Amino acid sequence: MKKKLLNMLLGTALVMSLAACGGGDDEAGGETAAAGDAEKIYSQKCSSCHGGDLKGGMGPDLTAVGASKSKDEIAGIIKDGTDGGMPAGLIEGDELDKVADWLAAKK
Known about the structure:
It is a single chain. 55% of the residues lie in helices and 0% in strands. The chain has helices at 2-21, 33-45, 47-50, 71-80, 93-104. The protein starts with a helix and ends with a helix.
């Protein structure tokens, strides 16, 4: 009886963990691979200050940053930092371009 219960629990845990992984393609829900990449980069390098939901924290709210700043302005801020405490060079190269483009679309 205990062995059956253990097998059932392990089987349920396996099914639940596989379901949580998703496994869909990068374009599910209208997201492009580039947007997914930008979100991942943001999550790893920016969310600790700007929040996982872009609503701010130590750093400012970015939910509508594209309404007031262009992609080039956003890229400049990411590249050069600010006097307000954002360090320069957190993201560089192609990653910087992807994140700046993604944030510029937030209006």
